[in-house]
Amino acid sequence: MQARQLEVFCMLMRCGTVTGAAAMLNISQPALSQILLHAEDQLGFKLFNRVRGKLVPTREAEELYPECERIFSELGALKRHTTDMRFGRTGIIRVAASAPPAMSIVPKALASFREAHPHVVIRSLIAPLVNVVDMIRNGDAALGLVMNNMARPGIEVETLGHTELICILPEGHRLADREHINFADLQEETLISYRAGTYPGRILLSAAAAEKHMFNPAIEIDISLTALPFVRDGYGVAVVDGLLPWDQFPGLIRKPLSHKAMVPIALLTSRDRPLTGSHLAMRDNIRDACASVLAKAEDLNR
Question: What's the rounded Cα separation, in Å, for the pair 301 and 82?
Answer without folding.
Answer: 47
